[in-house]
Automatic annotation (TrEMBL):
InterPro entries for the chain: SirB1_N (IPR032698)
Protein name, as recorded: Tetratricopeptide repeat protein
Pfam families on file: TPR_9, Transglut_core2
Domain (Protein SirB1 N-terminal): residue spans on this chain: 56-199
Length: 283
């Protein structure tokens, strides 16, 4: 399956700056951030393509019934529109495609990972006035409708099938072996959703060492989020070394070692050794 070609360096810099600005805004827009992830990964997605994706979400939202009722009615209306009529859903093969994590491609193919299909569900529903939000179950993202005491869950990967409490418990148990906890059912914030999407892209690339370019841009976007793990800097440094940028990678390894030294000096020494090895590869 072909992987999208990256944008030009100039376009990439422009999109990354836009992504960083949106991520740090007072109310980050989930769809904008997802489309900007797509624009970094796919050079064919220009500003007109981003606008077209937004228009498509508006078009779909316009076909929902007007205020169908409570949470169950909203969930069923989305299932009928997106899952049945337009056949948005996922398949096991979607996990093998980078495009399954890029919103514009998911809108085009009507196939994707659970979290991207959930973004489609959330945004179409939100534009129609539904009380909707994402629910980041361990290992499987779904959508929720209504307040906690009336919460209805739906699984966009399964065409928006409405889940019973037992269904949700099975999803969590199948992914982690753990029990479903109330804390797992709270709404996911937009930046949490974007971070999880970038984690999925990094996992896709990690299984394909020849696609370290994809891993690198996913890590670099994650580093632009206001809150991120310091270990991402280490991951980026390793990728730079792997891709032959030994000098920059070594410098970033040394910077990361200084951060680690405050809590784990032996680990910092190991990272410094990696930096030294990277510099040695220049000779």
């Amino acid at each position: 399956m072909p992987v999208p070609c990256p944008p030009s360096p100039e376009r990439s810099a422009e999109v990354r700056a836009w992504f960083a600005e949106e991520a740090r805004s007072e109310r980050p827009d989930l769809v904008t951030l997802c489309l900007l992830v797509g624009a970094v990964g796919d050079g064919a997605l220009d500003d007109a393509g981003i606008d077209s994706a937004q228009v498509e979400l508006d078009r779909l939202a316009g076909q929902l019934p007007f205020r169908p009722g409570g949470p169950s009615a909203w969930a069923n209306a989305l299932h009928q529109l997106l899952g049945v009529r337009f056949e948005f859903r996922g398949t096991p093969g979607d996990y093998q495609r980078l495009g399954s994590s890029l919103l514009h491609d998911v809108l085009r193919r009507r196939r994707g990972l659970p979290i991207l299909l959930s973004v489609v569900w959330m945004e179409v529903a939100r534009r129609a006035g539904a009380p909707v939000y994402g629910v980041a179950l361990p290992g499987h993202f779904v959508v929720g409708f209504g307040p906690a005491e009336e919460q209805v869950l739906a699984d966009p990967f399964d065409g928006g099938r409405v889940l019973s409490g037992g269904d949700a418990e099975l999803l969590v148990a199948g992914a982690t072996g753990a029990s479903l906890e109330p804390s797992m059912l709270v709404p996911a914030a937009p930046l949490e959703v974007v971070s999880r999407i970038l984690n999925n892209i990094r996992a896709w690339a990690a299984a394909r060492p020849e696609r370290s370019d994809v891993a690198l841009w996913a890590v670099e976007l994650a580093l632009l989020l206001p809150s991120h793990s310091a270990r991402l800097r280490y991951e980026r440094a390793q990728l730079l070394v792997e891709r032959g940028d030994f000098l920059t990678g070594a410098a970033e390894l040394e910077a990361y070692a200084e951060v680690v030294a405050a809590v784990d000096e032996p680990a910092a020494d190991r990272v410094r050794g990696q930096a030294q090895s990277a510099r040695a590869r220049l000779n």
